[in-house]
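Supplementary Methods S3. Input chains for the assembly prediction are listed below.
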Amino acid sequence: MSAFSAIGETGEIDANQFTPEQEPQPTWCPGCGDFAVLKSLKQAMPEVGRSPDEVLLVTGIGCSGKLNSYFESYGFHTLHGRSLPVARAAKLANPGIEVIAAGGDGDGYGIGGNHFMHTARENHDMVYIVFNNEVFGLTKGQSSPTSPKGHKSKTQPSGVAKDPIRPLSMALASGASYIARTAAVNPNQAKEILVEAIEHDGFAHIDFLTQCPTWNKDARQYVPYTDIQDSDDYDLDLTDRRAAADMMAETEAALYEGTVLTGRYYVDDDRPSYGQEKQNIGEMPETPLAERYFDDDYEWERSYDFIESYT
Amino acid sequence: MSSEDLIWRIAGGSGDGIDSTSRNFAKALMRSGLHVFTHRHYPSRIRGGHTYVEVRASDEPVHSRGDGYNFLLALGDSFARNEQPGAVYGNEEIKPLVENLDELREGGIIVYDSGLIDIEDIPDFDERVEENNWHVFPMDLRSLAREHGREVMRNTAGVGATAELVGIELGAFEELMEESFPDEILQPNLKVLHEAAAIVRDEFETDHELAVPESTHEEEQALVSGSDCVAFGALDEGCRFIAGYPMTPWTEVFTIMSGYLPQVGGISEQVEDEIAAAALAIGASHAGVKAMSGSSGGGFALMSEPLGLAEMTETPVVLIEAMRAGPSTGMPTKPEQGDLEHVLYTSQGDSSRVVFAPGTAAEAYEQTRKAFQIAYEYQLPTIVIIDQKLSGENINVPASFFDREPNPDLGNVPTEAELEDLPHDDVGKVKRFQYEVENGVNARPIPGQKGGRFLTTGNEHTEFGHISEDPQNRVIQMERRLEKLNIIRDELDEADDSHQSYYGPDDADYGIITWGSMQGAAVEAVDQLVAEGHDVKALNVSDLMPYPVAEVSEFLESVEQALIVEMNASAQFRGLTQKELGTYGEKLSSLLKFDGNPFEPGDIVEGFEVEIINDGTGPTQANTRIEPAVGD
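Predicted structure tokens for the full assembly:
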């Protein structure tokens, strides 16, 4: 019998179950795109059949990092840029739980960029939501890795001399097996993409455009947007890496020219998740490791079992 | 000691199999009934360079490498660079011989490979041999190895010659070779072994006195290193997750764990950097698995922020810090104790961590176990400090020492049934960080448990884990977290076995104080000083945080003066001691060494004589420094 009976439990799940008692009023500014992430995530949960006790929401630092303060589940608000290594280890320790990591664009593409690259490379079975508002919000408006070239801020008074980072292309090159972009202004699409990402058995990266009405007033509210799956102008084969790379490059460039393209860009259902790969080579147990500590009958191995080779 | 110990030094280049040969040599002597202790010296390079391993063998327990050595097997360096005009590295071919002469004792034995080393290249060799009464045996070990097998078997030839010269039965080596070599390698090795012994017998006249002592063990021994013992301790505490990034010398613990964990259904992760490594260990522990990580100085610096996260979120985790000489990249393969302050204080804010520095392999096992017990019982990070010396030195420990019960207990982790009795808010969130709980420790549910969900954060937080900057809440939560250290100190003080170790006569007038891996050298220094008629005893401190105030105070009360011996340049442990005790400053002077070589007992004897007996009329002859007392 599992020590974690919340996992796999069946029954009616309501999006409202994911609303906490305390702090139901987020500290986000009126009009902030972060509300849409919260709402679409709550709505995705009944569709994937997950209850609050089987979800671990791991966040970084920034306005986005407060997501798990307003979302009722197991929550771990970590460090700036470090949500992914905490999250992926939790998934290895107990693959039964639903692990979702979230953070901002500075968090994921800047300070945590190395973890983003490697977590995608390893293809952990988890979702990573990056709140992309093209600015550092909580620290009052400094330019971020996704700020457009020329973006002026108090720390970049003459404007950013760098081209913005290409988050979708980076995810693809690193090895993510589900890559999508959605926008706060399109909560239905966001919910659908979240459902797909959660159900996907691998690393699912969602670049979530979240407008910042306070520090990025000049930026568009990401309208109008185009869903490339709904548009007759695009006919993307989601399993085609080269086509995905081209479409991502076009999407990333278009954002800074006023055209908001969203949707799914790449899906590889064949690539095994990292946990499966580890199990295939005998380096991860079939039964979740976390269960063992609750199993009173387990015969724990001892160092003494190996002592012969030292005598 | 009843007869002179054999201290055998095998020297050559990295990549020549020095390490495995010395390990087998030590094991053979251990099996024959002797106490053994090994010491490594190697460069930060894959092939070649000045490398040696010493194996000390005695009929009595040994605690250190000893002073100098008395048998040199100089094998030649097959990866020596060709000497270039003006090159800084000089003639590397002769280094296995020439670099090792200064420490060879009078009357010592030299066997060198005349196939690789030209004696003509060694300055003043004959004069030095005569002056020191060395016994020299040139042998073309390389040709002998080539004749029967492959060139690398010259190590075996050297062992055969050694055995014949100091009286070790070849059977001890034959047995080990049979256990580890496939037949096609075994047969030529056996031939080389016997042939080398025969050459010594037939072609040389010997008149040296050095011989291997004789002894027997009452029970079966295991040859283990400090790193082996850290890994054993972790396994026996139910640690089944490790994350790391390679860095010398931490790599040793990481490698040993990565070998065993898949065999016991655990998980080892080599990850992108040490920030990730520590964060993974925290993530795994949060999800219900006993977990560890670690690194050496530079990598540990990257763990600074996750370490603070573990403190703030009260997530249990054990980190290993295997010190090497710093600052920065420093001397990667050389031991030092320069990371003490780094480990105690790194990460922003006030520390709530527990730090142990074991002094021996056996203590490394015990204290790693204790580190896991405290981390999980009190929900905080614990750190075990070792160093390049303790990490890689091998010593014999009775095999039965490790025959213990495992302890996979997660501490205050409720079952789902127990969760129902915890306070929840109206929608079902657990009050994870309550103010008033026994020992300041709250129940810690595990994700996936029904009715256990909670919020945790690196921000200051309320009883429900919500971010809070409320001044009253802040003070209560800080005090609850920090108070755990006082409770832990009390628990350690009340335990039957103190982590601190004492040596020498209780009523001695003078003290030598060490911390961590310098324990063994201090023990042997006390033996030598007492034999010379000095009134001295030793204290080795392992508990660094929380500091053992009562024990150290009691020791200092009992002596007139104490010499604190540590392997760093700024007397970090003395500084910690004065900060913690606030007094005794007039009694405490320091003997420091930071040249990349650990203290030999003789270094401490000399430092004691200069500073304590002769009132600081230094300097010392050894490459050590004395820092006089500075008062309170």
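The first strand of chain B starts at residue 6 and ends at 14. Residues 501-627 of chain B form a domain with the Rossmann fold fold (CATH 3.40.50.920).
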